[in-house]
Every structure is written in C-alpha cells, then in structure tokens.
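[step 3/7] fold_predict: job queued, chain A
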Amino acid sequence: MEKKPFIGEMKNRIKLVEKVIERTPSGAVTSSDVTVAESYARMNDLSGVEDVEGKVRHLVNRTYTIRYNPVVKQKGTALILIDEEKKYEIIHIVELGHKQHLELRVKLYE
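[step 4/7] structure written:
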C-alpha cells in the first residue's frame, strides 16, 4: 500500500478536465475541455518503455497523489489529467486513507 505523501512532496500543479461534446445550432459537433479541479500533486514515475509496432510510441506509467476530492473520485476515468501541457489518461483511482488522498494511475501515449 502506498503511504500518504508529505505536504512538501506535493509540488506538481495539475489540472483535471472533462471532455464535453456539444452540438451547435447548425448541427456540427464540437468538443471542449471543462476544468473539473486544479490541485497540487506528488508525481511518481513507475516505468517508461518504447514500443515498436510499425511505429515508435513512448508509453509512460505514472501515479499522481492528490488530496481527496469527491468530484474526481466520482467521475474517475472519464477525466484527463494535464501536467505541464501534457495530457494523461486516468486508468485507475485508489483512495488512500479514509477520504484523505486519491492516487491517480495514468498513462500517456506519444
């Protein structure tokens, strides 16, 4: 089990956004990002691998630990995490302690 972070370890400023798809009056479909939460987080790199299947992709597995947020817990994997202008897909959320912290497991494909 991951232990809870110290406040000084939570130094990465992240943004959690949700993709919203809307239809304009003319019938066109538009997609926009709506910010759900902004928080400081502790980032922990788990692994990084290059995968070659006709093209080279870089797979990054990380975890971000944030303070408990009920909206983030509820929306879960529907959210996108943005850190330093890079977008990460949330694949799993783990609650640390009773409503104290959330560990967001993310991945990025470039």
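[step 5/7] annotate
The chain has a mean pLDDT of 85.
Residues 7-109 form a domain with the Thrombin, subunit H fold (CATH 2.40.10.270).
exit 0
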